[in-house]
Write a structure and sequence with these properties.
Layout: H1 3-15, H2 21-31, H3 35-38, E1 53-59, E2 63-70, E3 86-91, E4 96-103, E5 106-114, E6 120-124, E7 128-132, E8 139-146, E9 158-162, E10 167-171, E11 185-189, H4 195-205, H5 209-214, H6 219-226
The protein binds fe (ii) ion.
Fe (ii) ion binds near residues 79 and 81.
Length: about 230
Amino acid sequence: MNSKINQLIEFLKLNQSHIKPNQLKQFLVGLKLETEDLMPWADFNHPEHEGYGRKLVFANSNFEVMVMSWMPKDFSAVHNHGYTQWGAVQVFGPATHYVYKFEKSKIKLVEKAQFESKDVVLVTNDFIHQMGNKSNAPYLTLHIYGAENVSSEITADSFIYEIEKNRVVKTTGGAFFQLEESNVTVVEPLYCDDEWTLNEFIETILPKSQAFKSAKKTNIDNWIKTI
Ligand SMILES: [Fe+2]
């Protein structure tokens, strides 16, 4: 395995039970990873209906390391991270990043940021976010998710906040839009009455609507007609 990725995994193995997100950030900054270090896990030819490429680099019972690949107009759905207690994401391109709050069944965008390559964002247990590629060039991101005493995959049972369907669903796997109904469990209703949130959200979901159409999925088109 690539030596810098190997160093990262060894660091995580050594410190996993008492790692603090800031320590992880410091380590990542010092490691000076480059895109080429992540290229063995690049997946830019992911299926159109999946929001982005997603490859596992390493997983044990305490942490997982993944590389995500973002083509222009690739966006994740709004999601949390299952059993994750700590983690970090490092971007290797100009990712756009959205942070949401979900309280009393209402979802609201609270922060939108334009990242620069090498930026690191910390992941905590209650973190709800969305990211995507508004630029004209593909890039990769590195994702580290950790937890203690988890019997299943750390990012299993993640929630997807489906603003377009007014519901929160639970799933295992990618934070993709328009997941197959057989792959989700409905958790609770969700509402959004905030104009900024809706305006920003539609920009992230529109680029894939053509792909949804070709997959004979009409929910998003129906939703778009109503706003
Ligand atoms: Fe995430």
